[in-house]
Amino acid sequence: MATIREVSRLARVSPATVSRVLNGTTPVAPPTRERVLQAVAALDYTPNAFARGLATNRSGGIGVTVNEVSSPYFGAFVFGVEQVARENGLHLMVSSGFADAQSERTSIDFLLSRRCDGLVVQAEGLADEDLIDLVRRGPAPVVLFGRAVAEIEDVCVVMRNERGGAMAAEYLLAHGHRRIAHVTGPLSFPDARERLQGYRRALEAAGAGYDERYVVESDFREEGGARATARLLERVPDLTAIFYGNDQMAAGGMRTLREHGRDVPGDVSVIGFDDVFLARYLTPTLTTVRQPLIDMGRAAAHLLLNRLDHKRREVVHRFDPELVERQSVARIVR
């Protein structure tokens, strides 16, 4: 295996000049740069990433921690982060925190111990104070996803969830529904609370009234959506529409509705939230409130690069929802 000294001898330059060409840290005269690149190609030289990391104090890696890597929701977000990372010659290391404070700390500590240059953190279990401390005093730059913390809002990438919840309820109201149920995610999560607030605000503004019997808390998973739907059908069998806090719960809920002999959308209309890939493959295809998850991942990565490179690229911090109409909502004619 060729060494940097062999490259420098062949190119008739110093090892430091070879390093500057390969790292792009300092401008090098074009003829000199060309000689170095020709020598690198002739000797099939591959820089030692570990040694380069020691020299530059950068590992070339970004850490990402999310609730569950297996979730299609987080998969789309991480894909967006990775797109930007790859475009900038960086790689990802990903860990799950499972919405538990201790697990989230373990994931963050693991990624930092692997010398990640910066972290994108999605955390539900850690307190705001923990995240403020991590951002202000942590050993590496940090960006937060899905969590708005007022003191550090300049490093947060979030969705306008309350607006999305209101949008879902307003769409059902516009289609003639008044007995509209809502299956929430865990109400310890800010995004679940905000979507519930939007749903409630829209019902009250329309004079439809808010009734707690029509609201069931669940867990953002398919099975949770199925169980919550069975509870709703027992509580309020006259419901005509259900707004689910995410598409995965909607998928489970649609299965339960079929098992109870309810046609979607003939008997019960269904609307989800997120627009993950499965929404367009359900039967019927799922009307939902879209989160631009890949774009949000890209924004989080660009925001982290700003902190790493001390640049000021224009980055969107707050994203607006978009309603995606498919086949799971029917109009009630009165």
Write the layout of secondary structure elements.
Blueprint: H1 4-11, H2 15-23, H3 30-43, H4 49-56, E1 61-66, H5 72-87, E2 91-96, H6 101-113, E3 118-121, H7 128-137, E4 142-145, E5 156-159, H8 161-174, E6 180-184, H9 190-205, E7 215-217, H10 222-235, E8 241-244, H11 247-259, E9 269-274, E10 287-290, H12 293-309, E11 318-319, E12 322-324
Parallel strand pairs: 1-2, 1-3, 3-4, 4-5, 5-11, 6-7, 6-8, 8-9, 9-10
Antiparallel strand pairs: 10-12
Helix pairs in contact: 1-2, 1-3, 5-12, 8-9, 10-11
What does this structure look like?
It is a single chain. This protein folds into 3 domains: 40 residues, no CATH class; 127 residues, 3-Layer(aba) Sandwich (Rossmann fold), CATH 3.40.50.2300; 131 residues, Response regulator (Rossmann fold, 3-Layer(aba) Sandwich). 46% of the residues lie in helices and 15% in strands. It contains 12 helices and 12 strands. Strands 2-1-3-4-5-11 form a 6-stranded parallel beta sheet, with helices on both faces. Strands 7-6-8-9-10-12 form a 6-stranded mixed beta sheet, sandwiched between helices. Helix 1 crosses helix 3. The protein is elongated, with a radius of gyration of 25 Å. The model has no long low-confidence stretch (mean pLDDT 91).
